[in-house]
Amino acid sequence: MGNLSSPAESVAQSVRRRASHGGETDTNTLHILSWNIDGLCGQFTNERAAVVCDVIDERKPEVVYLQEIVGPTWNLLTKRLGNAYFLYRDEEIATSWHYFCVLLIRKNSAVVPKSNHPEILRFPESQQKRYLIQMRVNFRGIPILLLTSHLESLVRYAGERKNQLRTCFRIMKEELGR
Question: Is the pTM of this model over 0.70?
Fold first, then answer.
């Protein structure tokens, strides 16, 4: 018989395969990792989150955008990555809603936050407590506005999702005019 693996090992292999990359590390390149870790899918959530932490730890991107974080995965992230990364979220939504998004910025890297706290823009018409995390940083002396969100899901909320995306585009356009 072939080599059979447990479901958790299969999840780990799948996560690592999706995160694999080739090439040399370029110190002039801003490395950003974005990942919906599917925290709402209760099956293997902790295993998936642990492998995500492994990948972040191995690749050491300066910036990480994570979606669908739930309480147990937040605890794992802070425990595993809290010494190496600043972790930002909307505290009110994170403590009152069942999932949220997170921005991580690697400490002691070329990305330097201009503030200790991100700007949070809550989408007022959101039915799913969606918000935009905005953080002004400098990368090698270049000012950058980092944005991350998890836009409204499902077909019935397509109109709101489009409004949220337009808001993000407006903010980016305004930033270009600064």
Answer: yes
